[in-house]
Amino acid sequence: MTKLQKRTLRISIVLAAFLAVSPAAGAMHIMEGYLSPAFCIAWGVVCIPFLVKGFFEMKKVFAENRKAVTILAMAGAYIFVLSALKIPSVTGSCSHMTGTGLAAILFGPCTTGVLGIIVLIFQAVLLAHGGLTTLGANTFSMAIAGPAISYGIWLVCRKCNVNKRVGIFLAAAAGDLFTYCITSFQLAFAYPDPNGGVLASAAKFLGVFAPTQLPLAVVEGLLTVMIMVALENYAAQELKAIRFEK
Amino acid sequence: MDEVLLEVKGLSFSYDKKPVLKNISLSVRRGEKIAVMGSNGAGKSTFFLNLNGVLQAGQGEIFFNGKRAGKKERKGLQRSVGFVFQDADSQLIASNVRAEISFGPMNMGLSKQEVAERVKEAIEYLSLSDLQDRPPHYLSGGEKKRVSIADILAMKPEIFLIDEPMAALDPMNAEKVEQILYRLNKEGKTLLVATHDVDFAYRFADRVLVFSDGCLIADGTPQEIFNLEEVMERAHLKKPSVMVIWEALIKARLVGGEGEYPLTSGQAAEKILELSGVFKE
Amino acid sequence: MQIDYYAYQSRIRGWNAAFKVLIAVATLFLVILFNRILVSLFVVAAMGALTLLVGRTPWRVYLRYMLAPVVFLLFSCLAVAVSFSGSPAGEWNVSVHFFYLCMGQESLEAAVKLFFKVLAGVSALYMMSFSTPADELVLVLEKLHLPGMFLELMQLVYRYIFILFDAASQMQTAAKARLGDCNIRQSFKTFAAIGGNLFVAALKKGNTYYDALLARGYQGRLELLTEEKPVRFWQAALGGLYFSIVILLNLA
Asked: Which of C76, C151, C171 is most worth mutating to test chain A (most A CB atoms within 10 A of its CB)?
């Protein structure tokens, strides 16, 4: 090895160690300024049909029940606050839930999409998580794709009579993992590997964020189960009342 | 003073078939200060929501200024009967004080100029000028309370329904709010104040309504009401401390039983000093 | 929620909100379109100066927020700079037995560009969010003719976020006071219980709040008195100068 190679290796080892104890682990918001204009617009356009569908569903609910406006606003605020609360941790690192799985199970995927984009706007503006130009990409991965998978898995588990808690765990954890995969691919599309193209690049992004995102998905799944159990204890009736989508 | 402003006849209301208000009848005259008392869940808040038109009674009728207030006139009812909620946070929706106060007047369909005028008046009335650009979430409890009163004031209703105005306020802020209530009444507004504070009700109100289990079980002057032991027990109320002490003094023949009872500890002290011949210098 | 707090204190809060949003968004667009280190550095400096010197946002707070995304940024830049290959294809290569970690001049450059581009984007976003309270942003969106229901929902969500934050922090304190965080297992239980409780509280509040809206004559539209803050000539001129420099730097 040349001197330079040695140095590079050393740097990568340090970085890898750094990575293993990465202090901040939240949902994978793509940062402001990360994507080129074409991708910003493209991801935004991809979201539109889903958001429009969610919007019309909401409108229908509103027409039937005006009270839904404050309930839905509360639901949005709830997702925001839940995702801003610090998850307890042993190492003192600071991580957060995404709340997407919980929202999908509670409100259904379409409503979650519309609430999700509102939450993401406020996360960008109030917490500096994510950004305006990356809003489209983040909305797609976190408010549309993730919740859709969560909701799908949850439905399938219920149909197949899988234990309720297992179903919720799988739904929430898979939603998180799916969001993480989508985000990695979004990053890879924007910065394909010069040698291996998009796939190789996606593999790199998946690898780089795996140490934070994999445990987080498990934690998200566990917490979602625990919160759902708590909710069923305190609020079985309210839960029935908020099923907006049939 | 004797003009009947609001009349309620046989009002009943149920939440999901659970009766909350049972056959309430009463009339409110212009300029009255009424304390509405009763234990938690006795139906006070539901009663207020009905008077304000948010809830529509299952049975019974409400007349305002002699006119029946049905579904169609609900909007009119909200103009004339304002409701200040107990928890100011539940009422504040806008992100700065000026916009917040404008919400009611805007809904009344007034011109922007008129709205701005009313907002300015309300801000001055409650001395909120320093806070007018601030968002409600950086206001203190007392400030929020004042904003929530300004909210309603700007709608210029004739009757104010105020739910537990002093709850969760420190004594100084409670005192401020109490002064505001006196001032509103002096300017001709009719006040219905729900409260658990018997001492406040005793010194403030010229009439007390007692609710228990959805029924109006007593209606009279504070002196009458606080002497009805059965009513007090049913409604989980206690006699105001000034009254307890004054009655003991009468019983011990330390003061005479004639004349009006003092309303506050200050008034009582003054009377005692007067009687014992010690005069203020 | 510090950003919101400092936004109300900012000395450039009085500037027209739409104007600030326009500057931020146009800057973002130009920065990612040009993708040049020089442009990015200038934007970081200019936006930083506007936020810190004119807006008087405390620099400690600003710095902490600028550093917050750095970890994510370093990793993603690393992923862009380094690639895997069966042969030593880059200018710098490290053999890891089965394959090589390679880094080429080009990919390194791309990563550095990316790094500064993101910093510039973040600084433009912060200029906006550290000086413009969210309710004013919603009003700007209103001018873009987004559906009313959506905006109304946004306004309410913004207000409710603070109410729920208060409720959550009270629950957390109450839980701590009863040793709800004595060990990791208990902490998780507490977290979930708070999550559940908060949801119930939110729904209950949602119901009362709707009554409170109705009590003030709400008919399905959240109409409020708003103030117009005109754009001053010197502000527009400054904006023009700034964008000219950005464009000139790109040509340089």
From this structure: C76
A244 — pLDDT class (breaks 50, 70, 90): very low
Sketch out chain B's domains with CATH numbers: 4-238 (3.40.50.300), 240-281 (no CATH)
Closest-approach residue (CA) in chain B for C138: B95
Domain boundary assignment for chain C: 2-133+229-251, 146-215
Question: Inter-chain contact C196–A73, Cβ cutoff 8 Å?
Answer: no
Phi, psi torsion values for B14, nearest 5 degrees? -130, 145
Q: Give residue A143's domain range.
A: 33-241
- Neighbours of C, requiring at least 3 CB pairs below 8 Å, are A, B
- Phi then psi for residue B30, to 5 deg, are -60, 135
Q: Is the pLDDT of residue B229 over 60?
A: yes
List the 161-200 stretch of C: residues with Cβ below 8 A of B. Answer: 162-163, 166
- Out of A27-36, A143-152, C3-12, C188-197, least confident range: A27-36
The pLDDT assigned to B182 comes to 94
Residue C108, helix vs strand vs coil: helix
Q: What is the pLDDT of residues C209-223, one digit of tens each?
A: 888 888 888 877 778
For residues B13 and B17, give the distance between their C-alpha atoms in angstroms, rounded to a whole number.
9
Tell me the C-alpha distance between C176 and C130, whole Å.
32
C103 with C81: CB under 8 angstroms?
yes
Give first-to-last CA distance, chain A, whole Å: 64
Q: What confidence category does residue A151 fall into, taking pLDDT thresholds of 50, 70 and 90?
A: very high
Q: Provide the percentage of residues in chain A whose pLDDT is more than 90.
A: 37
From chain B, pick out residues whose CB is under 8 angstroms from the CB of C203: none
Q: What mean pLDDT is predicted for residues C151-176?
A: 89
* C208 in contact with chain B, both atoms CB, cutoff 8 A: yes
Phi then psi for residue C77, to 5 deg, are -70, -40
Residue tagged 């409020």 (tokens):
C224
Residue A64 sits in a domain whose CATH number is: 1.10.1760.20
pLDDT classification of C242: cutoffs 50, 70, 90: very high
- Residue A24 resides in a domain: no
Please report whether residue A11 resides in a domain: no
Inter-chain residue contact C159 with B151, CB threshold 8 Å: no
Q: How much is the ipTM here? A: 0.89
Q: What is the 3-state secondary structure (H, E, C) of chain B?
A: CCCEEEEEEEEEEEECCEEEEEEEEEEEECCCEEEEECCCCCCHHHHHHHHHCCCCCCEEEEEECCEECCCCCHHHHHHHEEEECCCHHHHCCCCCHHHHHHHHHHHCCCCHHHHHHHHHHHHHHCCCHHHCCCCHHHCCHHHHHHHHHHHHHCCCCCEEEEECCCCCCCHHHHHHHHHHHHHHHHCCCEEEEECCCHHHHHHHCCEEEEEECCEEEEEECHHHHCCCHHHHHHCCCCCCHHHHHHHHHHHCCCCCCCCCCCCCHHHHHHHHHHHCCCCCC
Tell me what the pLDDT averaged over chain C comes to: 87
**How close A159 comes to chain C (CA, Å)?**
25
What is the reported pTM? Answer: 0.85
Number of domains in chain A: 1
Q: Is C30 part of the contact surface with chain A (CB cutoff 8 Å)?
A: no
DSSP string, A168-219: HHHHHHHHHHHHHHHHHHHHHHHS-BTTTHHHHHHHHHHHHHHHHHHHHHHH
For residue A77, give the nearest of C2, C160, B196 by alpha carbon.
C160
> Across all residues in chain A, what is the average pLDDT?
83
Q: Which has the closest alpha carbon to B118: B108, B105, B131?
A: B105
Q: Helix (H) and strand (E) counts for chain C?
A: 10, 3
Residue A221, in any domain of the structure: yes
